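Entry 14. Structure prediction run on the chain below.
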Amino acid sequence: MAGYKETPRQKMIAMMYLVLTALLALNVSKEILDAFLVVNKSMESTNESLTAKIHEKYAEFKKQNDMNPKKVGPYWERAKNVEQEAEKLIKYLDYIKYKLVEVSERKDSTEIMSLYYVDTVINGVSKKVLDLRSVPTKDKYDATTFYMMRENKSGEAYTLSQKMQVYRDTVLNVMGLPANSDKVGLYTNPPSGDYIYKDASGQPQDWEQHNFYHTILAADITILNKIIAEVRSAEFNSLNFLYASVSEKDFKFDNVAAKIIPKSTYVFKGQKYEAEVLVAAYDSKTQLNSKYLQGAETWKESYMDRAKTVEGEEGTIKLEFATGAEGLQKYAGIIEMRDPVTNDIVTYPYEGEYYVAPPSLTVAPLKMNVFYIGVDNPVSISAAGLSKDQINPVISLGKLTKKDGEWSVRINKRPTGKSIATISASAKIDDKTLPLGKAEFRVKRVPDPTAEIGGMADGQIDKNVLLAASAIIPNMKDFEFDLYFVVNSYTFGAIINGDWVQKNVKGNVFTEEVKNIIRNGKRKQKFFFENIQAKGPDGTNRRLNPVNLELK
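Output returned:
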């Protein structure tokens, strides 16, 4: 590498690396590049998502600061300082990405921006973003390595590691963590100067060499996006730490309202309805009672004599209703509590509703509206208001099994008589077994596959493609299940020198005799693959479509 002094060993390793790179370029370079592009795209999406969460947290923090600046202000100022340092470092990382493309492509800034950057909107803000896939030299590393490393540790990688360490120290200071804490990323080289990284041969490396020496442009960009993710993660952690450092009792609440938290708003007949009524902004020591009346839409003073009373515990009211009647049920009430300032009894009205429904069952096939013979038919079995573990289904035909929380139906033989499978289910609720209903499904055999050779059932085909295919493949087109048919035999025919030649073949593979006939075939000659017999997963034998091909 020009401008970077190497030892004889490093030169030898570099030469071996070049040979390996050449081999990779001949064999799997596209796969390697595609992998980097996929990972890089994923990192960019992750960074966008994390940035959006951080912006939401800052907005929430600012709102609390506006409500009570005296208490929240010191923490908010520290949060804004972290935000400024994070934006500076990310802006610098974006600059490095731009410079790496510039030195790799050897183009001026105007060309770089017009050719490889695209306009996009991220979290409501318009900006230009690098389209790595469009950069021709994304698989090159010479120019980028020189830019990042250089002689005497003057490359940009060393400046980057210093800036990362400064930002890391800022976050550690905000969170009150020691220098060696692993709760914050962005760790480069230890203060002792010891090398903690090693190359493929086991030789020690510093962080800069480990990440940017002989690293292709696509990998460089991916690594930089990973560092951006670490910057955002550290910013998010410090922001959460500062926000949590402000006690909720210091926040200013401008109103008090009753809140209902039902255990469930959808209740089966025979179950009980349960809910908690909370008074926001009061601690667990608050003493309160509630009066309520079932059937009332809103609370009225005239309901006081008929209302039931419930004593609160630790600032909460627990309501429990019987559910003998079906349909929409409503209730209303008040919470009575002593004002901590005036010592007077104050009331806060509340209202709520819930729906009592008869038991019901939903059984839905996940792929088609029938059950096919000889394959596993995945089905979704659920009932409103019940977990999957509470439901006990049975089937009238075949076998119903559960694996990893999902149900599957298997029917191995064609049924005699009516081809209908019925799934019914029950559930145990409050020590009672309740029937949930049933559902019926048609039972059919799987459709015939399409016999193909080289992806074709008829038409013209190149001789080499036909020889390379060398077998008849049953293809299940437009069928959602993973299943396979096995070709047991077929008849091969062709007209040779005016005579009809026919060969009976076992299995689906071309025999040498068939291959020789194809090799000797001439342009426009036709080959016929007929009487194709195949066995399906349901055990039945099928006669598939003929395949008629003509040499180009």
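DSSP finds ten helices and 28 strands in the chain.
Filed with the rest of this week's runs.
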